[in-house]
Specification:
The protein is α+β, with helices and mostly antiparallel strands and about 325 residues long. It contains ten helices and ten strands. The protein has an eight-stranded antiparallel β-sheet with strand order 2-3-4-5-1-8-10-9, covered by helices on one side.
Length: about 325
């Protein structure tokens, strides 16, 4: 059974944190033939009928209905990347989770079903196999909207075809510090890929973390999308590695100053915003990756989630602000 109050999912604990690749995800968008799309539901009951049908098709997964959760717990799911910010806006929505939270199936977001398979490192092929297995199970029990020429029919035209979005979360402090991200975003956009913030489309960039994904799903096979995205991601990783080498060779003093300033702030702050904390944590991680710092039990991924407001707010204790609590956690974990 998944634990909503634990900041980091079990699948993220499996391996040591890599310097650049934080996680990978495969998402499949599917719709049911005999239901109108979620954005056009005539009533909440129409949404609940879809939830029941999908749950019946996947009885081994745990269901969480969002209409039965408070706003804080919904935001915890968003912070853990188990649901999108858009899902919580829907009046009749839910999520199905497996035990380690590596599988998350959003029900009634923009599409009826969005299957998500998540993992560490560049494991896109393995994740696609997991998502496909669930997709096959759904296909056996439900009537999925599909056209022989267009492929899977989705609410948004950019998802028609395979209905697949592959994405990789990258920690890119070097490229960000050297202001290379806009150029990279413009370059890959021409080839059908995009760079977004930590929570996808329209979200803010925190801690020099970027999500790279395919934009087009029509006219390409799932294999082609995965292969092309992997190639793009590898090129970005190589550029980040080259920038980090330059920082140590030609900008070492400035780099050390940046890293140790951030370390000092995190170790001594009494109030700190999410935005500043994320960038300070990013620069400390950079210092660890470059071999300048050694900090026991420093877990970048876990801290980035733990310091978000959803895990800090307590309406029973309003004497301490969220920014104060965030500072307390950082001082406790960074010594």
């Amino acid at each position: 059974m998944s634990d909503i109050n634990t900041p980091i999912s079990e699948w993220m604990k499996e391996t040591a944190e890599s310097p650049i690749v934080m996680s990978s995800r495969i998402r499949l968008a599917r719709n049911l033939e005999n239901h109108v799309h979620p954005l056009m539901f005539p009533s909440e009951q129409a949404g609940f009928r879809v939830i029941n049908e999908v749950q019946d098709a996947l009885p081994d997964l745990s269901l969480m209905r969002l209409d039965m959760m408070d706003q804080q717990n919904k935001m915890k799911l968003v912070a853990k990347h188990l649901i999108s910010p858009e899902l919580i806006k829907q009046p009749a929505s839910a999520v199905l989770l497996n035990e380690d939270e590596s599988i998350s199936i959003m029900i009634n977001e923009e599409d009826h079903i969005r299957v998500q398979a998540m993992g560490n490192d560049l494991t896109l092929h393995e994740l696609y196999d997991k998502a496909s297995e669930i997709d096959n199970t759904l296909d056996e029990s439900l009537e999925i909207s599909y056209d022989e020429q267009l492929g899977y029919l989705t609410t948004c035209s950019t998802n028609i075809g395979t209905g697949m979005r592959a994405s990789v979360m990258l920690h890119l402090p070097g490229l960000s510090i050297m202001k290379r991200m806009n150029r990279i975003a413009q370059t890959i956009n021409r080839f059908g890929f995009t760079i977004r913030g930590i929570y996808g489309e329209g979200s803010q960039v925190y801690g020099h973390i970027y999500q790279v994904s395919n934009q087009l799903t029509l006219g390409k096979t799932e294999e082609e999308i995965i292969e092309n995205l992997t190639e793009v991601v590898q090129q970005i990783i190589n550029e980040e590695i080259q920038i980090r080498e330059r920082l140590t060779q030609y900008n070492e003093l400035e780099t050390l100053d940046r890293i140790y300033r951030s370390l000092g702030i995190l170790q001594n702050c009494r109030m700190i915003s999410m935005e500043e904390a994320s960038y300070r944590l990013s620069e400390v991680k950079l210092g660890i990756d470059l071999g300048y710092l050694t900090l026991e039990d420093f877990k970048f991924n876990k801290l980035m989630v733990s310091i978000q407001s959803a895990f800090l707010y307590n309406d029973e204790d309003e004497t301490i602000s969220v920014n104060e609590k965030r500072a307390d956690i950082l001082r406790e974990h960074i010594k």
